[in-house]
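Subject: Sanity check before I submit

Could someone independently write out the structure tokens for this chain? I want to compare against mine line by line before I put it in a report. The sequence has 190 residues.
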Amino acid sequence: MAEVTLGILAGGRATRLGGVDKAWLQREGLSQVLRLSERFRPQVVEVVVSANRDLQRHAAAGLRAIADREQDIGPMGGIDALAQACTTPWLLTIPVDLVDINDCLLPSLLAAGGAGTGAYAEDDNGAQPLVALWRVADLRRGLASAIASGDYAVQALQARLQMRLVRLPGVRLGNLNTPADLAAAGIDHP
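---
Independent answer below. Compare away.
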């Protein structure tokens, strides 16, 4: 298997759930960030969290957390921070509010994008550009160009890098943005 770093994107402003940090939502007896870390750890070399607050809380939980180098550019800032911190040739990014963890996710992305610059997922609800496997060397070059030009759209970067779209039928990667999303995922609204 390829050497992959898991990068958990947890650097949002917590505006969608009224200030609640999605990283610390409790599900299956664990915080969301720890649940994701533990589920993917057997498949990856290391886990890094992109977080712009609570860095000490992440460290106390045994997680390596880093802040964005570039502020106020959305998920692109987190992807940039993770790319710079990555020590492996591949970076798997997932948002901290990933709902459905499927064991075939990383192998499917590797199979589709391993010969190129990477791949990103599409579930039953459409493209999920933050669920992506990136070849780090290409990603760093692409990020430098995108950030310099002020183009912070993740899907535009993936198109420029000619990343492949991987269809995952029957999978709902999802997001936790509303009380209804939380209820569907088995999380009580804090």
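---
OP: Matches mine. For the report I'm noting this point. The two ends are 39 Å apart (CA to CA).
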